[in-house]
Design brief:
Layout (H helix, E strand, L loop, with lengths): L1 H7 L4 H20 L5 E4 L4 H20 L10 E8 L6 H14 L1 E6 L3 H11 L4 E3 L15 E3 L8 E3 L7 H10 L59 H10 L5 H6 L3 E7 L1 H5 L6 H11 L3 E8 L3 H12 L4 E5 L10 H9 L3 E3 L1 H11 L12 E3 L3 E4 L8 E4 L2 E4 L4 H16 L11 E7 L3 H14 L4 E6 L6 E7 L2 H13 L6 E4 L1
Parallel strand pairs: 1-2, 1-4, 2-3, 4-6, 7-8, 7-9, 9-14
Antiparallel strand pairs: 5-6, 10-11, 12-13, 13-14, 15-17, 15-18, 16-17
Bound molecules: flavin mononucleotide (FMN), adenosine-5'-triphosphate and magnesium ion.
Flavin mononucleotide binds next to helix 5.
Length: 506
């Protein structure tokens, strides 16, 4: 088998180790699942090209171990799926189809989105595991292992990632050692390929002094960490809105007229089990209220990357700020930062500056090859330093992750945040809310209609009702930025009923 021979004949020991590990994962998967139960997700990219040849070798070696191989590999029986998209580069499409022909791949072309495509595929076929060319540096690799069940909300299957621990250099060492074909774009300076809308050649490979823009081939990129430098950042409308606030572009006036909203997300199975009573969430709501912000939503989610990512993704574009607490640290359950990275589609990368702080705090215990605590979302993280804090706070665009574990620690972090972000417009102090509460023994039925009408007349106020008990009085609360409007609303309500129907709560 030519791939196996090429690697065994090479003197690159690192490549040999990576190859052997990947083949081991493939052979385990082929032992666990029948050939009809596995599929290979192929998209013509360099990583999936590496995986194709590893699968060819792995399948051959697997058959050999079962002593049913005659030494030649003629067919490749693993179902291969390609999600074709109109935004793919034509070179990628061409390479995918050519490769399928060369190696006799049974190509299933899917033209819907990933999730519904996989749903249909799994309904029609007994597939239980899918091989992917995901590598640890990819944004989508956050939280994955070599065998990772698909995420909640996705159809159920095992994601098998044989090259998860391969570096950019390993990928090119393999492709060049095995002398296999790869997509022509990689010889034109492309180092990682997404869609035609978000991918350009990597400027680090640009050949200077040439009148025509030319680029060196991908395998010459000296630093694999910059593999994604040719990926153009997509700026969503919400990001723009945020950056306007962030850069202090908003004028004083527009600040005053705007309603700033925040979401508060707690991460903790212990809260969901009811073992621990959440105090930080309510405390944050009070703090936000005290600076005139509106908390649009609070949530408590599980210590699970996908749960955190889903909550952050939902809140980040509809709020000015999102505050996260819980799940921060080096434990297996501390997945909050990874969830933030996944929500932004970026990878976790070691942050030397943060590591330095941790070293001061906990000594050399925090160093090593994989210091999980010093891994932060790449390219979007800003460390917020304050002399009163032993470790900076972590800000990823409009997401603040608080490491506080109790109200006293939260008070301190909050005061620092206000000092740090209050001045640059991110956590600007707004006109505080005025509020008034009335109680009444009138029934809900009697008050319902007049209150609905009052809400229509005073749309600038929050008029809410709640009870402390079913039998006790009804509490009506008025919240707003203008106290004269609150007085007017209270007066308007009183007029609708007999005198003395309401008492004021002090
Ligand atoms: C076969 C296959 C399985 C996938 N399974 C999952 C999954 O379980 N969970 C998930 O969040 N994304 C899953 N994805 C989506 C990828 O993580 C990622 O969003 C996708 O490859 C698009 O990457 P891009 O946005 O860089 O193009 C899957 C994609 C493919 C092709
Ligand atoms: N459109 C697609 N169809 C099938 N599989 C896909 C598709 N997009 C991504 N994948 C799977 O996800 C893996 C990771 O994608 P990713 O873009 O990171 O790698 P790549 O495309 O192989 O290489 P590159 O990083 O150079 O773009 C792929 O190797 C492949 O297994
Ligand atoms: Mg790609």
């Amino acid at each position: 088998m030519e791939i196996d021979k090429a690697i065994k004949g090479s003197d690159d020991t690192r490549l040999k180790t990576k190859y052997n590990n990947a083949i081991y994962v493939i052979k385990r998967a082929l032992a666990l699942y029948s050939i009809q139960e596995v599929a290979f997700s192929f998209n013509g990219g360099k990583d999936s090209t590496v995986l194709l040849h590893l699968l060819r070798a792995g399948y051959f070696l697997h058959r050999e171990e079962q002593s049913c191989s005659n030494g030649v590999l003629t067919d490749f029986p693993i179902r291969t799926i390609y999600f074709e998209s109109s935004s793919a580069f034509p070179e990628i499409n061409l390479f995918t189809y050519d490769t399928a022909k060369t190696y006799g791949l049974q190509l299933d072309i899917i033209r819907t989105d990933f999730k519904s495509g996989l749903e249909a595929l799994l309904k029609a076929n007994p597939i239980r595991a899918i091989f992917l060319g995901v590598r640890i540096g990819d944004p989508t690799a956050v939280g994955q292992e070599q065998f990772s069940p698909s995420s909640p909300g996705w159809p159920p299957f095992m994601r098998v990632n044989p090259i998860l621990d391969w570096s950019y250099r390993d990928v090119w060492a393999f492709l060049l050692t095995c002398k296999v074909q790869y997509c022509s774009l990689y010889d034109k300076g492309y180092t990682s390929i997404g869609s035609i809308y978000d991918t350009v050649p990597n400027s680090l490979l640009s050949i200077s002094n040439s009148s025509k823009k030319e680029f060196k081939p991908a395998y010459l990129l000296p630093d694999g960490r910059l593999e994604r430098a040719g990926r153009v950042k997509r700026i969503s409308s919400s990001d723009t809105r945020f950056s306007a606030v962030n850069n202090g572009v908003d004028s004083e006036d527009s600040h005053r007229n705007r309603m700033f909203t925040a979401s508060v997300i707690g991460v903790g199975d212990e809260i969901l089990f009811g073992t621990v009573e959440d105090q930080l969430g309510p405390s944050l709501c009070r703090k936000l209220h005290s600076i005139g912000w509106l908390t649009s939503q609070t949530a408590v989610v599980r210590n699970d990357i996908d749960s955190v990512a889903e909550a952050v993704e939902r809140c980040k574009s509809t709020n000015d700020m999102v505050f996260l607490y819980g799940g921060v640290g080096p434990l297996h359950s501390d997945v909050t930062i990874a969830g933030v990275a996944k929500a932004f589609g970026v990878r976790l990368a070691p942050d030397e500056e943060f590591e330095e702080y941790l070293r001061h705090l906990i000594g050399d215990h925090c160093t090593g090859d994989r210091n999980e605590m010093a891994q932060l979302p790449e390219g979007i993280t800003e460390l917020l330093h304050h002399e009163k804090l032993s470790v900076p706070l972590i800000k990823c665009q409009n997401i603040i992750t608080l490491s506080a574990t109790n109200v006293t620690e939260l008070d301190k972090q909050w005061d620092c945040l206000i000092e740090l972000l209050g001045s640059d417009g991110c956590l600007v102090k707004m006109e505080p809310y005025s509020s008034k509460q009335l109680t009444t023994n009138l029934t809900d039925v009697e008050t319902a209609q007049p209150l609905s009408k009052l809400c229509l007349d005073f749309p600038d106020l929050y008029i809410g009702c709640f009870r402390k008990s079913r039998e006790g009085p009804l509490v009506i609360s008025f919240e707003g930025k203008d106290s004269t409007r609150i007085e007017a609303a209270v007066e308007a309500l009183r007029k609708k009923f007999h005198p003395g129907a309401f008492s004021e709560v002090n």
